[in-house]
């Protein structure tokens, strides 16, 4: 079975321990059956037996020995049980640990397209509830199956050794139990798949609500959100109830059958005793161990229930466990080369979800050059820069760095040669220092400060209560847009890569600060090719070349002066942004 | 700033006391009736279940020795009947309790969520999102069984225990004390591990919270991580967090597994003692064999409920670690709330007055000091100035996202702290720096501004902000599915969509906080045209660095040095040759 194989495969490194736990389980469960034997002997010899009084006088030693034996046995059994539990826990925790890390890496390794289609809440469900089911399957489900089975088989063997006919009579009940259990399993499975889906929806709704808390307050939409959440919560709750009620449809049968073992024993056993086929003592032996047959039967329902839940969760985990990203980072680069930084787009087209975003784009950038890209909203500027570090792959054409197609480069090496600051600034809930040094955690503190200065961030950081040690919230929520952008900029510069991409990184920064940043960029102490996406002419003016993008095509290309002279898109934007000043230009020019 | 990080444990201020359960009782009490019925059913089912051993006893002692076939069948049938009845009762009980358990956690979860909706920005700013998420979903799930079946079983087991003890004492007092002698030992063991066990489970919940926070953050930050090829390092951090979790779990298990261990052994020791004391110390002269036999069986029965109780106790302790977190969140103070006696703000005319306003996010560190200004209805105000000077703070105060520490803010003469939050915010359109896109269709995203908006209204709003064109270019148009992080939309397009959302709300006061920073100059120009028409008669506050956006505003305020350094129209400020002039000329281009 796939699920077992999967577990076995992930048990690697803990297989011995787990098998040991299973063996201990078998021994421990057998002991449960053997243990009452001593008590029975005390009763037979010293209390109920015909020579009890005499024995009590003659064999005091035996009584004490038996009592001590009982205690010793119990200590042995419970000690063993303790050990067993810990072995199960240890090996299931180890497996959980391994699978968790494996999944984490899988998630980290997915390409952007995967993230465009998978919600955070759903991934979180996989990493929490679903993983918990994996642990549960190992620490509880399998354990319970083995222990129930051992007790059941041991009791049966014992029963058969006493009397086969009565044992067979008892076994009459086994087939109906299995049939009911099978029917239940079939019916409950889709319920758990559904339940699992609703849990994921609840997680997604909640997660989005937390992430959107500002927007919700801004629109005073708390009630709407509560409604939305209440619906998802009710859905989840309903699915929980439905699954539980299905279980309760079958529970009465399973429970009745399990308890009916006593009835069968009574009627068939009684009959056999009366017939003289078995003795009273033998009947008593059956009676004292009948629980060992009925309890496992009783457990079947619960086991099946949990197995189905585990299957539903595993099906979700497997989605990510075996997911193959279109763009694979094998982390193989042993020695990372430093590129020169020549970039060439060779007839690149890019389609996404059926829409063509870039049409036959060609341009090249020499090492050390600064290129500015400008264009209308949605014209494909960000897409162009996303193709360089291979966040997406081209649909047609090639992107080349130093003459090599990026798809042929080792991904770690490629990305290790690019520093990017994106539009949507994402910081981590870490110190400012930790955020700036995100790409190079070994960065000495003076360097952090230096890059913060270059990014015009030092002044405001210094003024914060804990300076560079101030913890910024996730997404940098404690900071203004411009401040976040500058930290992201410092982060991108701090890695000193030969290619630096700035995607509209200074849009929320005031002009004075921006001028400072422009200067810093020009005076960086490492050679680097710069690609700067910007909306402001003041940002693009000093670039070696400017590309104007419209609807996925390059419509203008040239220097500031050339493009102004062209009187096209760039000129229009320039005029728009310099109205008032435009007049001065006209007068002085 | 006590901001929490993914790898920082959250300390609990309150020590454990029964109060957490008492608070949980509030929810349980609402289910009193079904729970009482369930309890009665359980008791009945248990009582009927008790008759089975009696029947068996009778069959063995009387029926079989008498070789009576018919009574044997009769007793068997009766026994089957008791089984069926007790199972049916138990099933009904479970049906009731399933509903009760789900309803209890459903209510806790909704209360928790409602409370979270009221918590200020600061709450969300101060901790990783994953830590909030896990409380609402996972922690609440974890306490479901304890709060429903757990309680009933707890009571049942105690009743059971008392019954058995009573029977026991009725048979023989001396041997009963022998049985009870195990109890102090057991309680001693429990007492010894109680605090440690509780701490251990707290640590588990802390570590799982950390692990979740980091997982969530890794998922949201995946782009940055891949960009900087930080995967391996993050794996290291994650591995450490996962190892911490495993460590604490194992520690907690060590205590947990100790309980069945001690109960099992005590029960055996006590039974052995009964034999020894009964047979050797007291002897047959003093005590009959029947009594010893009965007592040894009672002793085993007496310890069974104790074992069950201690298993329940284990889950209680585990649940408490979660309940503490849940109630801690419910106790989080709502700092911005409707003041007592707050009235609904009448339809806003648009006059906004800042009267000596002082404000700081952290006490002692003022961002604004004694700020006063007055905005006439319909006026458009631009806020400019260096980043971090407090522009966003000014607009945040108008929407009462924070309360002023000194002075007051009035809208049409009403102090905003004296009106209801809903009436205030629902009349304002605020477009924040981060344009959040909900997962769903573009249509739904715009509709968020006005929930009952018709499709025509939505399209009209999209047209006004010039978003209609690009939306129609998608195959599915307005029904295109987008999500929080998805790259289907460019940053500029996201801004346009949230712009349309804001406009749709038809606000009386419009606040744009860097709302157009990612929109190209040409689109912005078009947008401005549509907007000018719309802005007529509405008060607006615009924060922008692009001066082309700012220029046309009625009044420009230059925010710096904890206040307003300059204010006036574009021409006035240029003539003054001050801060604004310098800012403006920085844009001067060499042609």
From TrEMBL, chain A:
GO cellular component entries: plasma membrane
Domain ABC transmembrane type-1 span(s) in chain numbering: 19-309
Cellular compartment(s): Cell membrane
Limits of the ABC transporter domain: 343-576
Family annotation (Gene3D superfamilies): ABC transporter type 1, transmembrane domain (1.20.1560.10), P-loop containing nucleotide triphosphate hydrolases (3.40.50.300)
Keyword Membrane: yes
Transmembrane domains' residue ranges: 18-38, 62-83, 140-160, 166-185
Keyword Transmembrane helix on entry: yes
Membrane topology: Multi-pass membrane protein
GO function terms (MF aspect): ABC-type oligopeptide transporter activity; ATP binding; ATP hydrolysis activity
Keywords in alphabetical order: ATP-binding, Cell membrane, Membrane, Nucleotide-binding, Transmembrane, Transmembrane helix, Transport
Protein name according to UniProt: ABC transporter ATP-binding protein
Source species of the chain: Cohnella zeiphila
UniProtKB/TrEMBL annotation, chain B:
Domain ABC transporter span(s) in chain numbering: 352-586
PROSITE patterns cross-referenced by the UniProt entry: ABC_TM1F (PS50929), ABC_TRANSPORTER_1 (PS00211), ABC_TRANSPORTER_2 (PS50893)
Location within or outside the cell: Cell membrane
GO cellular component: plasma membrane
Span of domain ABC transmembrane type-1: 36-318
One Pfam family cited in the UniProt record for this chain: ABC_tran
Membrane topology: Multi-pass membrane protein
GO molecular function list: ABC-type oligopeptide transporter activity; ATP binding; ATP hydrolysis activity
SUPFAM superfamilies in the cross-refs: ABC transporter transmembrane region, P-loop containing nucleoside triphosphate hydrolases
Protein name (Swiss-Prot/TrEMBL): ABC transporter ATP-binding protein
Species: Cohnella zeiphila
């Amino acid at each position: 079975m796939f699920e077992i194989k999967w577990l076995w495969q992930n048990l690697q490194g803990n297989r011995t321990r787990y098998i040991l736990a299973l063996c201990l389980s078998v021994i421990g469960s057998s002991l449960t059956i053997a243990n009452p034997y001593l008590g029975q002997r005390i009763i037979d010899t010293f209390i109920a037996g015909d020579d009890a009084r005499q024995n009590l006088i003659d064999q005091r030693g035996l009584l004490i020995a038996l009592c001590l034996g009982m205690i010793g046995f119990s200590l042995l059994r419970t000690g063993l049980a303790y050990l067993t539990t810990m072995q199960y826990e240890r090996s299931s925790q180890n497996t959980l640990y391994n699978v968790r890390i494996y999944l984490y890496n899988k998630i980290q390794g997915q390409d952007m397209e995967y993230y465009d289609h998978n919600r955070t809440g759903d991934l979180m469900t996989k990493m929490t509830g679903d993983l918990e089911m994996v642990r549960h399957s190992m620490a509880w489900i399998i354990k319970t199956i083995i222990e129930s089975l051992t007790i059941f088989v041991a009791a049966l063997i014992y029963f058969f050794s006493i009397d086969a006919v009565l044992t067979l009579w008892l076994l009459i009940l086994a087939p109906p139990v299995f049939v009911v259990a099978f029917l239940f399993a079939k019916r409950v499975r889709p319920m758990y798949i559904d339940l699992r889906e609703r849990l994921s929806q609840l997680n997604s709704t909640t997660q989005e609500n937390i992430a959107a808390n500002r927007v919700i307050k801004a629109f005073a939409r708390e009630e709407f959100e509560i409604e939305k959440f209440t619906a998802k919560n009710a859905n989840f709750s309903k699915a929980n109830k439905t699954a539980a009620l299905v279980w309760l449809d079958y529970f009465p049968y399973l429970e009745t059958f399990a308890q009916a073992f006593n009835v069968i024993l009574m009627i068939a056993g009684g009959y056999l005793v009366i017939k003289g086929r078995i003795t009273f003592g033998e009947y008593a032996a059956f009676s004292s161990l009948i629980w060992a047959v009925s309890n496992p039967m009783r457990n079947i329902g619960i086991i099946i229930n949990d197995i189905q839940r585990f299957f539903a969760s595993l099906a979700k985990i497997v989605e990510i466990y075996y997911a193959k990203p279109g763009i694979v980072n094998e982390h193989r680069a042993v020695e990372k080369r430093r590129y020169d930084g020549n970039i060439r787009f060779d007839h690149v087209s890019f389609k996404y979800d059926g829409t063509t975003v870039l049409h036959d784009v060609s341009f090249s950038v020499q090492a050390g050059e600064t290129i500015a890209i400008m264009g209308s909203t949605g014209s494909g500027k960000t897409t162009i820069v996303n193709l360089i570090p291979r966040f997406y792959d081209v649909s047609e054409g090639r992107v080349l760095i130093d003459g090599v197609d990026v798809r042929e480069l080792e991904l770690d090496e490629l990305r290790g040669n690019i520093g990017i600051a994106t539009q949507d600034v994402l910081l981590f809930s870490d110190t400012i220092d930790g955020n700036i040094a995100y790409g190079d955690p070994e960065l000495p503190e003076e360097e952090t400060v230096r890059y913060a200065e270059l990014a015009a961030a030092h002044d405001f950081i210094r003024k914060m209560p804990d300076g560079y040690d101030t913890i910024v919230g996730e997404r940098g929520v404690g900071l203004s847009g411009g401040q976040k952008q500058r930290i992201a900029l410092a982060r991108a510069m701090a890695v000193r890569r030969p290619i630096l991409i700035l995607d509209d990184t200074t849009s929320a920064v005031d002009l004075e600060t921006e001028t400072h940043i422009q200067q810093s960029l020009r005076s960086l102490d490492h050679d680097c090719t710069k690609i700067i996406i910007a909306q402001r002419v003041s940002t693009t003016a000093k670039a070696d070349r400017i590309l104007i993008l419209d609807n996925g095509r390059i419509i203008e290309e040239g220097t500031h002066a050339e493009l102004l002279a062209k009187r096209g898109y760039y000129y229009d934007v320039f005029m728009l942004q310099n109205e008032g000043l435009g007049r001065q230009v006209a007068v002085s020019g | 700033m006590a901001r929490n990080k993914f790898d920082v444990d959250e300390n609990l201020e309150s020590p454990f006391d029964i109060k957490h359960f008492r608070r949980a009782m509030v929810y349980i009490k609402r289910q009193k009736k079904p729970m009482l019925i369930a309890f009665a059913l359980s008791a009945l089912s248990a009582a009927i279940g008790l008759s089975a051993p009696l029947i068996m006893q009778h069959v063995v002692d009387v029926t079989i020795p008498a070789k009576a076939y018919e009574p044997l069948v009769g007793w068997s049938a009766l026994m089957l009947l008791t089984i069926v009845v007790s199972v049916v009762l138990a099933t009904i009980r479970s049906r009731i309790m399933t509903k009760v358990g789900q309803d209890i956690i459903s209510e806790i979860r909704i209360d928790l969520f409602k409370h979270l909706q009221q918590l200020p920005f600061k709450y969300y700013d101060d901790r990783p999102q994953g830590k909030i998420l896990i409380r609402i979903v996972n922690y609440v799930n974890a306490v479901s069984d304890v709060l429903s079946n757990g309680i009933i079983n707890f009571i049942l087991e105690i009743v059971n225990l008392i019954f058995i003890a009573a029977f026991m004492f009725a048979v023989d007092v001396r041997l009963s004390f022998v049985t009870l002698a195990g109890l102090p030992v057991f309680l001693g063991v429990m007492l010894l591990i109680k605090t440690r066990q509780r701490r251990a489970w707290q640590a588990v919940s802390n570590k799982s919270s950390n692990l979740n926070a980091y997982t969530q953050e890794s998922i949201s930050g995946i782009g940055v991580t891949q960009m900087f090829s930080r995967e391996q390092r993050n794996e290291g951090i994650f591995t450490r967090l996962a190892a911490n979790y495993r460590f604490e779990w194992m520690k907690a298990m060590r205590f947990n597994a100790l309980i069945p261990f001690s109960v099992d052994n005590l029960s055996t020791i006590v039974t052995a003692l009964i034999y020894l004391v009964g047979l050797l110390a007291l002897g047959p002269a003093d005590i009959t064999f029947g009594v010893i036999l009965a007592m040894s069986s009672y002793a085993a029965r007496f310890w069974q409920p104790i074992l069950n109780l201690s298993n329940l106790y284990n889950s209680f302790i585990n649940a408490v670690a979660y309940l503490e977190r849940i109630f801690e969140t419910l106790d989080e103070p709502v700092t911005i709330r409707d003041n007592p006696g707050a009235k609904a703000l009448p339809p806003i005319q648009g006059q906004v007055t800042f009267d000596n306003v002082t404000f700081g996010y952290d006490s002692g560190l003022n961002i604004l000091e004694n700020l006063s200004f007055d905005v006439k209805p319909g006026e458009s105000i631009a806020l400019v100035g260096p980043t971090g000077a407090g522009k966003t703070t000014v607009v945040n105060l108008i929407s009462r996202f924070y309360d002023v520490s000194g002075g007051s803010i009035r809208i049409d003469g009403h102090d905003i702290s004296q009106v209801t939050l809903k009436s205030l915010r629902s009349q304002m359109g605020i477009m924040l720096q981060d344009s959040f896109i909900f997962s769903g269709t573009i249509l739904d995203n715009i509709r968020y501004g006005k929930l009952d908006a018709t499709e025509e209204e939505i399209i009209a709003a999209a047209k006004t902000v010039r978003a209609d064109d690009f939306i129609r270019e998608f195959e599915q148009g307005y029904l295109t599915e987008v999500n929080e992080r998805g790259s289907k939309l460019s940053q500029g397009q996201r801004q346009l969509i949230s712009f349309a959302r804001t406009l749709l709300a038809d606000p009386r006061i419009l606040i744009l906080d860097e709302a157009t920073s990612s929109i190209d100059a040409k689109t912005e120009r078009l947008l401005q045209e549509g907007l000018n028409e719309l802005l007529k008669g509405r008060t607006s506050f615009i924060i922008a660095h692009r001066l082309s956006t700012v220029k046309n505003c009625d009044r420009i305020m230059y925010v710096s040095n904890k206040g307003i350094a300059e204010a006036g129209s574009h021409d006035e400020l240029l003539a003054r040759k001050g801060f604004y002039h310098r800012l403006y000329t920085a844009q001067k281009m060499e042609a």
